[in-house]
Every structure is written in C-alpha cells, then in structure tokens.
Design goal:
Number of strands: 3
Helix content: over 70%
Order of helices and strands: HHHHHEEEHHHHHHHHHH
Oligomer: single chain
Structural class: mainly alpha
Strand content: under 5%
Mean pLDDT: 84
Low-confidence stretches: 387-391
Number of helices: 15
Length: 391
C-alpha cells in the first residue's frame, strides 16, 4: 500500500477529494439504482453498483496515467484531438443514437456508446489554454488574437448546441472566463456576452411563443423553460422537480441514513441528474454540505496551483478545467434544489455514467499533472507563505 502511495504524485488533497466523492458516488448509485435493477435486471441490485465501480476504477486508471504525463505534452496532444473531436460532433448529429429527443452519443461495437461532447469539451478547454499562452504578446489585438480564439469556440459550441444546449452554454461560459483570465480585451468579451444575451432572449421568446407538435428537442427546451417559470406544482411535467424537493425536505439535517431513500422509487433519473437530491435525503444537510465543500476544496486547490505554477499554459489549463468541473457541479445541484431549469448535467464523479466519469477523471488527472510539476504535495502553503514574506 505504501509503495503504491509513493507512486502517487501531485496534490494529495485533490486525490483525497476524488476518493471521497467516489465513495459518495458508490453509496448513492447503489441506493438509487434499485428501481432500475428491478426493471431491467430482475432485481439484481448489485449489478449497477458493480458496473459503476468498474467504471470508476477505469476512471482512476485514466486519472493515474494522465497525472504521470508532463502537462506540457497535452498542448500538442489536444491540438491534434481537436481535428478528431469536431468531425465526431458533426457525425453525431447525423448518425448519433437518439437520447431524450437528441442525438448525443455515437454507437460503438458491443452495444456501447460514446458521448462526443465530453471529448470536445475537454479538448476545447485545453486548446484554448494553448492559444491563450501563444497569443499573450498580442492578446489585445482583435484580428491576431480574438478571432483565432473565437473560431474554435463557435464551431465546437455550435455543433454541441442542437443536441445539448446546457453543455454548449456551460462550455461557452467556461471559455469566456478563461479568456477574461487570459487578458483578452474586455470590450470584445463584453460585446460577445451582449450578443449572446440578445440571441438567448430571442431564442427563449421564439420557443415560448412557438406552436406545433410536442416532440423534438425544440419542444423539450420550451417545456423546461415553461416548467421552471411556472409555479404550478401540480403540473405533471414538473414531476421530477417536485419529487426532488420532497426528497430534500424529507432529508432534514442528518438524513434518513444510507439506503433508506423513498423518493428513489418516484424520482426519474435518481442515479444521474438528481443524485444530489438522493444524497440529501439519505445524508441530510450535513451530507449535502460535505459534497459542496469537496467541490469548493477542489477549486480552491486549483486556484492555488494557478498562483504558483510559473508557466502560463499550466495556469490556463488548470483554471479552465477546474472551473468547468465545479461550475457543472453547481448547475447540477442548482437543478436539484429548483434554482435552475432542468438541464441534464451529471454531478461530476458522482452521477452514474460512462464517458462523463472517464473524461472527468482525465480532467482531474491533468490538474494533478500540473500540480506534480511544481512539487505541490505538502508544500503549496509553505511556498505561498514564503512569497508573502518576501513581498
């Protein structure tokens, strides 16, 4: 055990956060997948937990391998991957498997599937970090800096948008934050935000006033917006949010205890989109606070890495990946407590899934790779104290 621990590099705090989130994930998935097991696996409640454990184990393998690679190599690797991810996104829109009225995944052999937006999301963040690093000398210039930065953003987000609006919006916001940190001209960023806000307002107006058949992705977006605006708790389409709020209310301070959830039998997707509600029901406000704290610690450690790493690429890479993960987590939790419309975003490293967990693991492995290069483990706070004393 000690020999294995000696091979683990990087920030030990981030490793601890990942392990704790994975433990919560196993417990919550085992508890919430019971109905799924009785429906598809003849009551074999261990099936989905074992499957989830294997997915997490493979994710840990990816994380370990990713953290061994010098982070500077990711600049070149994902530059190449971008030319693979973009065609895969386009291919998904054409031949992808229909999932919730949207083509989000590509079919693979052996009855497997692959969600291409997960690959594209990480690829774009790494590629943007590379461009920001290379363009720092002319970062305020529109033609030589802003245009090359915006083209891949518009292409990738535009290809994701038709099938997954929330993922496209999440990725777009992450890119805006990364450009702001990268010192891109604020006027260009604000003009882009204003244009985006106008387009979004027009988009919502058209959806809200459109009529037609109640099917397809357009109607799904319209329905979710109307449900969120509506205060009619009896609306049938608000069923999942209502059940989520019942789970949260019944959890109280300390919860009902592991495996004692009742709303898992009524709440759609309790093992993915609404797993946070199940965690609150079983572990109460205390359990929910621990989950939130773990994500905040992850982001805090990432920010500390950014303040110490001497190379700009490492800083842009770390903050971009970390912000995207934590922002996604906040969106998932916001949906569960009815602060945001239903989006379908999983809780990173907690919700049951395949490619989402693997690319989350790969993302964290990249952060660990950056932390490894500055010998972060056990020394990050001392480094900052020395810097403060010298100043």
């Amino acid at each position: 055990m000690s020999s294995f621990a000696s091979k683990i590099k990087g920030d030990k705090v981030i490793w601890a956060v990942v392990i704790l989130l994975s433990v919560f994930s196993l417990l919550a998935v085992y508890s919430s997948s019971g109905t799924l097991a009785y429906k598809y696996k003849g009551g074999n409640t261990e099936y989905y937990m074992i499957k989830h454990f294997m997915i997490l184990a493979f994710g840990f393998g990816l994380m370990y391998l990713a953290h061994l690679v010098n982070y500077t190599y990711y600049s070149r690797i994902f530059q190449i991957v971008l030319f693979i991810a973009v065609p895969l996104l386009a291919l998904t829109l054409v031949i992808g498997i229909d999932l919730n009225d949207a083509k989000r995944v590509l079919p693979l052999p052996f009855n497997l599937s692959f969600q291409t937006s997960d690959l594209a999301k990480l690829t774009l963040i790494v590629y943007l970090a590379r461009l920001l690093t290379k363009k720092q000398d002319q970062i305020k210039d529109f033609k030589s800096a802003f245009v090359p930065l915006m083209l891949p953003i518009l292409i990738v987000c535009g290809l994701i948008l038709p099938s997954n609006f929330s993922t496209a919006a999440l990725l777009f916001v992450t890119c805006l934050v990364l450009m702001f940190i990268g010192r891109v001209n604020m006027t260009y960023i604000l003009s882009l935000v204003m244009i985006g806000a106008v387009i979004l307002t027009v988009f919502i107006f058209v959806l809200y006033n459109s009529s037609g058949e109640k099917q397809g992705r357009m109607w799904t977006w319209k329905n979710r917006i109307e449900n969120f605006i509506s205060s009619d708790g009896g609306n049938e389409s608000n069923y999942q949010v209502d059940q989520s709020k019942i789970a949260i209310a019944s959890g109280g301070i300390i919860g009902k205890g592991p495996g004692n959830s009742t709303q898992r039998n009524f709440l759609p997707h309790p093992y993915s989109d609404f797993i946070f509600a199940i965690i609150i029901e079983e572990y109460g406000l205390i359990g929910a606070s621990i989950i939130v704290l773990l994500y905040m610690i992850l982001f805090y450690r990432a920010v500390k890495i950014v303040t110490i790493i001497p190379k700009k690429f490492g800083a842009f890479l770390t903050i971009g990946v970390a912000f995207n993960l934590v922002f996604q987590a906040l969106i998932n939790m916001g949906v569960a407590v009815d602060l945001l419309p239903v989006t379908g975003q999983p809780l990173p490293l907690v919700s049951m899934g395949g490619t989402s967990i693997w690319f989350t693991s790969l993302s964290i492995g990249i952060i660990l790779s950056v932390s490894k290069e500055i010998n972060l483990t056990g020394k990050i706070d001392k480094v900052q104290e020395n810097v403060a004393d010298q100043s």
